[in-house]
Design goal:
single chain, mainly beta, eight-stranded antiparallel beta barrel, four-stranded parallel sheet, 3 helices, rod-shaped
Length: 371
Amino acid sequence: MRQMTQFLLSTCAVCAVGQLARANTNQPEPAPAQQTPPSSPQSPTPATPPPVPTDTPAGTSPADPTSTSPSDPSNGPYNSPTTPTDRPTDTAPGTTSPPPSAPDTSGSGGVSGGASVQGGATVEGGAGVHGGVSAGAGATIQGGATVQGGAAVQGGTAVDGGATVIAPVVETDDDPYSYAWREPGLQSGIGVSTIIGGGVTGFTDKTMRNTTSDVGGLWDFRLTIGSHVPIALDLSYVGSATNINGLPTGRKGTLVGTTAEAALRYNLLPHFPWTPYIFAGVGWQRYDVTQTNVSLSDSGMNDHDNLLEFPVGGGLAYRMAGFVFDLRGTFRATTDQDLVLTRPVLASSPTSDDFAAMHTWEASAALGYEF
């Protein structure tokens, strides 16, 4: 009986320990104290916020009414992270940023032939930069602005949209109608030409025409300094030959003329291929009777004469690729003539007024080269 009693007590003790262990294992964890979820997002925030579980990202707890979701479209532009298109990317006024290493022609900005846009310059959409323009590093040409040929936009300068920058019109040496004092297309810079030509000549006085033929031959060589500037200098040699056929003795010969003269020439269109011109100058002239013997006493004519002459006239020159073609007409007035007497009976003691005037005319053409 005693053994039975001990067995039963041992069995009951083992069962009690097992029940107590199961009770401790199955008992749930107590909930955190004072954790009361809000009734709605509009309820005021509790004075003491509940603890946030460690496995929930910050700002997403349903218990926090101020937290918002990044994907919520109702969020303001500054309450949550934004995409690059949510905020302007332009630099704020008054601030500077390092220039890029290459020009930026963003949008539909156009840079046409000949324009120079240096590294760091910005040409925004719609802006036009045309040939000859120089935009320095850091310059900004905004959309719609137009910068035309020859204008310069220095580094750091901004041309607002819609603005137009036009280069000033400056007369250059390339203008064929200009009166510039330099011709860049020629080696000399002003034009130096040499021409050789020929033509016809004759005397204007009736007595001289009766003594000589009406028309004689002429040849000339001319050096022009300044053929492509408004004022030029002509240095000329002129030779002539006219038949003598009206002497009282019936003899015939040739009257040979030699002329050296200098003249100032005014070119009306110095840089145009066709240039009309006028000139006036002074020179020395000599006539010699050849192929016959004459004397003042028997024929009323001396065998030579020296004159002071004054050439005036005009012409037309055509210049192309260095070649020059020239047409001119000249009148030469003379003084101190004593070659042919107007009345042979005065041969004993004649004066300058007793001799025929020796004014002449000339029509000639010449061909040459200029540099």
